[in-house]
């Protein structure tokens, strides 16, 4: 069976039929929108030697996803995706994530309070920087996933009262294995910076008494 192209003015649609007579690709007018689709295969723009241009070269236009979507290379192809060119800038808005972790731009720190067991539970897959609102006795519990390896950031400790910090968990490693001399007065602000080496090794450095 030959391929057919059928134009139906009443439906404002051009339909392409494949060799087995099944309706496949189409161009239609839906309300005021031109829709290009394919009920069977993919929609392909351009060929091996053609670039695809968006817009008329004068007005600003957007590519909009109404649901979750991706711009990606074909799996297994080994192709690389390049964003931007040397003479242009790329503007990123909103949060940018790498392996599910906020990684580029300014992301507000997550403010944490200790749980009923006086533990600050910190999941590094949720953010890079954290503010610990500390008072009384407390300890830290820090979890790093494989996606957190190489991640760095800070735990900002704000004492809202006098504090009695406990020992660090075993996965937090200080220089020389030294014990931290914590700032424990109400109003003190300190920083415990970190770098995730692997899921069980997070190296940290403490700086206290900002004021």
Bulk shape: elongated
- Measured as a percent range, the helix fraction is under 10%
Order of SSEs: EEEEEEEEEEEEE
Number of domain units: 2
Measured by DSSP, the beta-strand proportion falls in 35-45%
What's the mean pLDDT score?
A: 89
Structure notes:
- This protein has strands at 4-8, 13-17, 23-30, 33-38, 96-98, 101-104, 110-112, 119-123, 129-143, 152-165, 172-173, 189-198, 201-210.
- The model has no long low-confidence stretch (mean pLDDT 89).
- β3 (23-30) and β4 (33-38) form a beta hairpin.
- 0% of the residues lie in helices and 43% in strands.
- It is elongated and about 80 Å long.
- By secondary structure, it is mainly beta.
- The protein contains no helices and 13 strands.
- The strands form 3 sheets. Strands 7, 8, 9, 10, 11, 12 and 13 form a 7-stranded mixed sheet that branches. It has a 4-stranded antiparallel sheet with strand order 1-2-3-4, with no helix packed on it.
Topology (elements, then pairings):
Layout: E1 4-8, E2 13-17, E3 23-30, E4 33-38, E5 96-98, E6 101-104, E7 110-112, E8 119-123, E9 129-143, E10 152-165, E11 172-173, E12 189-198, E13 201-210
Q: What are the defining features of this structure?
A:
single chain; 211 residues; mainly beta; 2 domains; seven-stranded mixed β-sheet; four-stranded antiparallel β-sheet; elongated
